[in-house]
Each structure stands twice: as structure tokens, then as C-alpha cells.
Amino acid sequence: MTDAAATTRRVGVRDVARLAGVSTQTVSRVINAHPNIRDETRARVLDAMEALDYRVNNAARSLGTATTRTLGVIASDATLFGPAAAIAALETAARAQARWIATAYADAADEASVDDAVAHVLGQGVDGVILVAPHVRAFERLEAMRLGVPLIAMHGGAGAEPQSAGAALAVAHLAGLGHRRIARLGGPADWAEEVARAEGFAAAARTHDIVVTAQWSGDWSAAAGAARAPEIAAAIPEGDGPTAIAVANDQMALGLIAGLRDAGLEVPRDVSVTGFDDVPDAAYYRPALTTVRLDLAGEARRCVAAALGEAAGAPPAPPELVVRGSTAAQGWHP
Fold first, then answer.
1. Mean pLDDT, all residues of the chain
2. How confident is the model at residue 124, as a pLDDT?
3. Which pLDDT does position 265 carry in this prediction?
């Protein structure tokens, strides 16, 4: 029997050049990220590569170059919106630079899992490693390993500022609505995003003279928000209880709102709730969720540039507060 896959001719550089209407040398320059290529030409070549399902042979190309034009991405908890959206943004940012990504998943709490992920991406001959959803301990371990290529934490280091600023926006919004007693539901303490968001919340609380009535934590999931709801609901009717809850991500906010409703409380009538991330479904929560939107595409471009040792260009756009129905003025009644 003839294997159809084996008899199919492999698409080559000449095929890409023919479809894109350029020379084979231009295709080669795009593949190798030559700087003197017009954006329109680069886009035409990349589109042709995608249309033809062209695959770059990194192993063969690296024999004559110092780079494979591939970046390693190490991620965990990709079922959550934040990490999944970050990986997609990195893929887009890398492709715009004629780069590709090799992704490995690791349990940050398991050193062997992290070691295996590192070995996998380094085995691809990557030019840099980007850590998505970085756990503080995992990043410190990777730094100590001296990978021999740049190591960048998405939303860590230079990327942490929008996280802090976004959390501060949520507090300022609640303060502007007259809330002076605010509680917080945060994420796991060893995540870089949680560290930055907690710092932004604390700084804004001091600025606006907010009484932080309580702080809880969860694992970023909707189930964690629902699990905390009975305890939070019990605190709300008290005279010194919170009138608003700042939640560290949208998924936990969704669970919290559902759990509060099960406890007989309505958002925002009895308590206002803010989220963080602006997941695609946030506008369809009931009530629609007031949340913070980050420039993931801009952060991905920053990380790709940093991993390649290039100038970062324009920084990510500032975080944006998206006001919807889950927040209202203190004392408001429908």
C-alpha cells in the first residue's frame, strides 16, 4: 500500500516565494528575521508560509547559523484564562518577528517537572525562554540554573507594573463610589501576578484611606470564589464588614458572585465586586463584571523582544478599568 503522506512533496522555499511574489532570498531573510524587510513584504511571506503549511527546518538551518529563531515558553495552569491568553499572545508576537515558540508545561511546585520542561525547550535550541504565569519559586530556580539564554517572566520584572497599576485602578474606582471598607480575594501567594496585584491594592488602599476589612486567597478558579462565598457573606452584614470586594481575577469573581447569591446576597445591592483580566465572558456575567483589562499583546511583544535581546519598542498600553454592573455607589438600592 502506498503511504499518501510519504508521496506528498514537501513544500519548500521556492513555493513560498512563488506564492508571495518575492525572491527565495527574501523568503530566507524573513525566516531569519533580517531587519531590512518591509512590514508589508514580511506579512506577505508569512501569509504564504501559513497558506502552504510551510514548516521551517530549525535543525537544518541552525547548522549554518547561531540561532534557531525559536523561543521557549514554559507555562503552568494553562486551563486558566490568563496563562492561555498569554501563550496565544506570545505566539502572535513571535510570528510577527518570524519566530516560533516551543511550549512546555510544568507544575511549578514540582522541581522535577520544572527541570523536565527546561530540558525540553533547551533541547529545541531556543534563543530565549519566557515564563508564563510565573511562580516566584519557579523563576528563582530557573535563574539559578543559568540557562545560557535570556530568561523573561511575563508579567514579572518590568511587566509587573501594569498588574499593580490595574489593581490600584479597581480600588480607586470603589473609593470614588464611596466605599471605605473593602476586602480582597487574592490568588496564590507565590504567583508573580498575585504579588504585583496585592501590592497595587495595598498602595491604593493607603492612598484612598481605605479600611481593609479582610483578605482571603484562592487558586484563581471560579470554584475557589464560590468556596469563599459563605465566609465572605457572613462578614458583609456586620457594621464594620466590607461594602466592596476586590477580586484578583475574573474567574474567582464569577464564583464569588454565584456563591453570594446562594447566600441570599445580591451584587451590587449588598456588596460591590470587581475582577481582573476582562475575560471574554465578563460582559455576560450577571451582573456584568467591572474589571481591569491588560494589554496582553503589548506585554507579549515586550517579552519576545527582551528574550531576543532587542529593543522593546513601545511599552504595553496602561491597564484599563472596564466599568459594568457589578459595582455601585455605597448605599445604593435599586
1. 87
2. 80
3. 95
Question: Which residue from 102, 99, 168, 156 is spatially nearest to 132, judged by alpha carbons?
Answer: 156
> Domains in the chain and their CATH numbers?
4-55 (1.10.260.40), 70-154 (3.40.50.2300), 161-295+317-322 (3.40.50.2300)
Long-range contacts of 295-300 (CB under 8 A, 24+ apart): 295/162, 295/319, 296/85, 296/86, 296/89, 297/89, 297/92, 297/93, 299/86, 299/89, 299/154, 299/155, 299/159, 299/162, 300/86, 300/89, 300/90, 300/92, 300/93, 300/154
What confidence tens digit (pLDDT) does each residue in 101-148 have?
Answer: 999 888 877 778 888 888 888 888 888 999 987 777 777 878 887 788
Beta-ladder partners of 217: 186
Per-residue pLDDT tens for 6-36?
Answer: 334 567 778 888 999 998 878 877 876 666 7
